[in-house]
Amino acid sequence: MSTNMQQQADAVRQAAAKLWRSENGPLTHDLVQQPGKFGLGRLPAGKTPNATTQMVCGFCATGCSLNIHLRDGQAINLTPTVDYPVNSGMACPKGWESLSVLKSSGRGTTPLLRNGRGKLAPVSWPEAMAAFRDRLQETQARHGVESVAFLSTGQMPTEEMAFLGALAKFGMGMVHGDGNTRQCMASAVVAYKQAFGFDAPPYTYQDFEQSDVIVLIGSNLCIAHPIMWQRVLKNPHRPEIIVVDPRKTETAMAATEHLALRPKSDLALLYGLAHILIAEDWLDRKYIAAHTSGFDDFCAHVAEFTPQRVAEASGISAAQLHRIANIIHAGKRVSFWWTMGVNQSYEGVRTAQAIINLALMTGNIGRAGAGANSITGQCNAMGSRLFSNTTNLLGGRDFESAQDRGQVADILGIDAACIPDRPSWSYNEILEGILRDKIKGLWVVCTNTAHSWINQNTCRDILDRLDFLVVQDMYSNTETAQLADLYLPAAGWGEKDGTFINSERRVGVIKKVVRAPGQALADFSIFRLIAEYWGCGRMFADWTDPEAVFHKLKELSRGRPCDISGIADYQMLDQRGGIQWPYPEEGGADNDKNHTHRRLFEDGKFYHADGRARFIFETPRAMPEPPNKRYPYLLLTGRGAAAQWHTQTRTACSAVLRELAPQQAYVEIHPQDARREGLRPNQEAIVESQRGRIRAKVFVTPTVQEGQVFIPMHFEQTNQLTHAHFDPHSKQPSYKDCAVRVRRAESWDDV
Ligand code: SF4
After folding, report:
1. Tens of pLDDT along 222-257?
2. CA dihedral (368, 371, 377, 380) positive or negative
3. Is 227 in the pocket of ligand 1 (CB under 6 A)?
4. Given CB 3.0 to 4.6 Å as the disulfide criterion, which of 516, 583, 697, 737 pairs with 520?
């Protein structure tokens, strides 16, 4: 090794040890020399060793608060926080098991590098950093700086997302980077931006309790967001609950009206409802005139969506359509809620906007119990939407705007020329870029692409084509980590500090209450290490800890719709039970008016230059791969049980959660179809699409309609079947419509 290289390796060794010491308390030995040693965990500020501290849950976007009980400064147990405005003492099974999922044999404890024999083998942090730098810089030198990209997440604290996005794009020269939020929220983001002028879910959870009509579209709230569902149940107004879903889900069973429509007929159905509201003049004409634009064109568009035509398309009778329109008309406080059943569609953006249109035309927005409300999925999807530096430049800005780039450069004290002047490719475009030999190096942080991406076999083939794949994750045993050339072990929720933003725009804190295993470092520390080793450490010299970055985020938000400049520090978030944006420094008394529950657009002013919301619409399109003679069933995918989370890398680590959900893939099929195919309950079946063939246990149930089958998304096999097609505006994958056939498995080898 040359003297220079030796010096750099020593510097990294010292930096890694220092970062690890700062995360783990004073150590008398060098981490790199003694892997696997634990130091003393750092106590939450101002707490005694045996105490309770509060932090936001790290699973879903509900953002419940959990009391973490400490002994000798370490978390030993938790209970839901009673006086937090989100969950009021409730938590779902995932929240209760948050600490136990941290203990798993699958946790990464040391960096791993693929060796000459093709095996991942332990290496030191200096070796890992050298490999990271050398291989990716070599790739950039040979194929151009754009040939290296990153895939980020909605699971990390906002400060880490911002660091990753800034490091990759401003420090390392990358242009392309996207997040796994593309898989769940992209359609809602585009819908809001186009309709409201900014990506701004307008509601507060209190609206669940204040509505007299609650319309849930493509949302199995009861299972996917159980604590939000609890709030619906606490509604004292005996609300009408209308569920629009092809399946008779747990939520549909509890509804007052279930519209079991044909899959992907939701856009036509929503236009049909608008048609009836217009025909009956059940409109808030004053609101439409004062606060919206494009209504006349919208009226002309929906004129052809007569109840008869929509009934034919959706399978919902004209009489039921009329009844639903009447319920919406009769409601005084009508709230519309949607999630993945809408977003994960090849026409998700326009469907979300069709929902927004209903709220606008009936004046159900900016009032208690109203709103066109997209519910997010991941714990920090909302942080990702504003600060991940992927689709948007930091703070919801535009990479293509010289003014926006200049603002960010001034705030961060960097040269504006470091900021890419064009937006990133989306997730699918990055993968296609690998196929086209444009992307040769990929850095995947805190997401499990090889499991969760649509049409998985093609996706894995694409990842295999990379010259160098880096995976940074809590777990070294994910499907994606197993494909990596370099694996970097990261700390998880509970092992580091930062903030999340929940579905109702509430910023809340997470804290380090447990030590990360082995040599694992917080993602924040890994980014600091990479910045040093890459040669751009000076650019991030004052990105010293998450709270220092939080203050940068405040400045980046100043004057924007998502302004959080009035939040003093983490302590204020702790004391206030989280704070919803906007919370501008100059907000004064307005900030504190109803400060625990605030909604947007109460003044009827939207973020477009003219202050008006837009009616946006488009002609519905046919499903690209409908059932056919060879593949006669339509496959629907979605959440299985409240105890399962996404690709189950975490929830499968809990013995309790494993007991609460089936561990083997299963396929729900209607009794008539099961009879036709000769399938009996609990038998093994083969489910095939044009792309793959999987085994699944048969679950015979009338909750799916004839001609449709359902498989939860949590199982590794599910995405071997799905068909890679996307919404053209949001580039979000359409996971819930592809043609399959189902037959009995003849033997165990029959896959
Ligand atoms: Fe955590 Fe979501 Fe469950 Fe609340 S509902 S405890 S945020 S997983």
Report:
1. 999 999 999 999 999 999 999 999 999 999 999 999
2. negative
3. yes
4. 516
